[in-house]
Amino acid sequence: MNSKLINTILEGPSSPLARFELRCDPLTLGLASVGMSAGQAGMDIYGQFVARDTHNAQEEARRIEQQNAIDENRRRATHDYLTNTRLERLQQQQEVESVAQKTFDIGRESDRSVATSLASAAERGVAGRTVDQIASDFEFMASEETGRLLLNQKRANQQHSENVRAAGTEWQNRVTSIKPYIKQPAKPIDFFGPIFKAGSEALQTIGTGALTGPGFGAQASGQPNPGAQKFGA
Description:
With about 230 residues, this protein is mainly alpha-helical. About 85% of the residues lie in helices and about 0% in strands.
C-alpha cells in the first residue's frame, strides 16, 4: 500500500480521524449539552415532586401522631373527671344519709328523754307548767342539734357542687391543652427555574463553542481553516 493511499485513508473525509474531529466540534458538543441540560432540568423537577411527596407524608404522620395524643389525653381526662365526680357524689350521699340517721337518733332520744322526765315528774307529784317546761327544753335541744347538723350538711353540699364544677373546668383545660397539628404546606413545584437554567447554560455552551471553534478562530486571525483544508475547502 503506497503512501498516498495511506494519507487518503487517514486524512480523507471518511477517515476515523475526520469523524472524530466532527464529533468533537464545539457546536456539536453544545447541542449535546442542550440535551444534557434538559435532562438535568427534568431530574430537578422530578426531585421536587419526590421532596413534596416526602414532606406531605411526614406532615401527615405528625398530624396522626398529634391526633392520637389528643384522643388519649381526652380519654384520660374524661376517666378522671367521671371518677372524681362519682366519688364526690358518693361522699355527699353518705354524708346526707349519716345526717338523716343522726337526726332520727336525736329525735328518738329526745322523745325518750321527754317520756322519762314526764314519768319521773309524775312519780314525784310534779305536774302542770313545770312538766311542760321540761318537755319544751328537751325538744329545743333536739331541734338545735338537728338544725346544726342540717346547716353543716348544706354547706357540705355546696362544697361538693363546687368540687364537681372544678372537676369539669379541669377536664375542659386538659382536653384543650393539646392543640391539633397544623400541617405545613410543601414548597410549590418550580417548573420554570430549572428550564430557564438549562436553557441559559445550553445557550452559553453553544455560544462559547461557536466563539472558540477552529473555523471562527481561523477566520478571525486570517489563517486558513485546518478543518476546511482536510475536506478540500
